[in-house]
Amino acid sequence: MSRQIAVVTGAAGGFGAAISSALLEVGYAVAATDADAGALERLGGHLGYPEHLKTFVMDVTDAAAVEQAAELIAERMGPGITVLVNNAGIIGRSYCLAQKSIELSARVIDVNLTGAFNCTAVFSRRMAALKYGRIINIASVAGIWGAAGGAAYAASKAGLISASESWARELGPLNISVTAIAPGICKTQMLGQFIDQETAQSADEARIIKSIVPVGRWGTPEDVAEVVTFLATCKTNYLNATVIPMDGGMRVGSL
Fold it and tell me: Domain Ketoreductase, which positions (predicted)?
């Protein structure tokens, strides 16, 4: 493939599928990775098995597996990996008083933060050889505000934001920019672990949302994908170490 290659982790989820589709639309070949082989197969069907999409089973928490996947991507698609979207993530309710909180918290941090470390280390080396790259990390407003019942999730996303800024300093001289997106409340399967779905789908939904989100609606995976494509295709490397909150204006409140 002669196209530039974008690697998307957690590609079979709501954000990942939308991001993969959007990057294909703007001309990238997409290496869609996920730990769930069955979900990857469904992703291909959902997107219509486009010519420039290849799927790869990859567990981001396993550094050796990430290295092996990177080699396979290069073998099947070519060496031109110029975009990495660290999207793989899980939530998991982890109240500090719960008995299993420590085990669940460790898993959340392993996937959300250690996974991004593994992927950034492996794929940034390939970008360095090309003297060009765009690394885009999907964080969360929870990493800025915190989240009751989700300390591990919030901590992992706060860590990802800080890591993004640190990587931006380290990789900027190599013409590799690192940015982060911090989505607010978005309608995905993961939302159900923090938001009461009966409330979210009730007749009062519009009133509830308008009371907390100035734009008056939930966010969508497509909203996030739109910003990912902007960052991926941005020609200037001066947009670096930037964290973009995508919360519909929640942080400033509504009327």
Answer: 4-184
Residue range 156-207, pLDDT digits in tens: 999 999 999 999 999 999 999 999 999 998 877 665 555 554 445 555 667 7
Domain of 196, in residue numbers: 5-252
Return the C-alpha torsion angle 33, 35, 40, 43, nearest 10: -80
pLDDT of residue 198: 45
Write down the catalytic residue from 49, 132, 153, 238. 153
- Tokens at residue 23, please? 């990057």
Cα distances (angstroms) measured from residue 105 to each of 36, 66, 93, 151, 228: 21, 22, 9, 8, 27
Number of independent structural domains in the chain: 1
132 classed as catalytic? no
Q: What's the CATH code of the domain at 59?
A: 3.40.50.720
pLDDT per position as a tens digit, 101-123: 788 899 999 999 999 999 999 99
Asked if residues 19 and 8 have their Cβ atoms less than 8 Å apart, the reply is: yes
> Are the beta carbons of 29 and 77 closer than 8 angstroms?
yes
48: three-class secondary structure by DSSP = coil
Quote the CA–CA distance of 179 and 231 in Å, as a whole number: 8
pTM, 2 dp: 0.93
Contact (CB, 8 A) for 143 and 160: yes
Within 10 Å of residue 98's Cβ, how many Cβ atoms? 13
Residue 85 has pLDDT above 50, yes or no: yes
88 phi, psi to nearest 5 deg = -55, 130
